[in-house]
Amino acid sequence: MVILFAFSSIVANYIYAENNLFFLRLNNPKAIWCLRICTFATVIGGTLLSLPLMWQLADIIMACMAITNLTAILLLSPVVHTIASDYLRQRKLGVRPVFDPLRYPDIGRQLSPDAWDDVSQE
Question: Which residues, other chains included, contact 68 with Cβ-Cβ below 8 Å and sequence gap of 6+?
Answer without folding.
Answer: 17, 20, 24
